[in-house]
Amino acid sequence: MSVHSTSGIVAWSDTDASGRFHHTAAYRWAESTEHALYRSVLPDIDIGRFPRRATAASYHRPLTAGDEYTVGLEVEHVGNSSITYTWTVTGPAGVCVRGEHTAVHVDADGRPAPVPQVLRERLVPTTGVA
Prior knowledge:
Layout: E1 3-9, H1 23-41, E2 52-59, E3 68-78, E4 82-91, E5 94-104, H2 117-123
Antiparallel strand pairs: 1-3, 2-5, 3-4, 4-5
């Protein structure tokens, strides 16, 4: 399946009173990586058409303001109207967060709709095996 990654630096606003990144920051970073993937395929894509259906994360190491991190987002499954991703946030000391989420493509009325074909083709590359 397809893999996409982005990097960043933990901002002060990403931290909580402990000085460590707030648990919601990892979700924002993963979502930003997902959106970058969509825009790399379809620059004018309506990102609002991919709401979350399910999310989960486990936290392994802290990050603090100024730490560099990388998000690796992997396409786990592409269904008719949904896409499931697994992702890892890695910092200077190794894996900090492992997570997953499922997004559902919806139409203008908010009903599930097929994943756009050009996006599907990019997320599920063909191997040439018959």
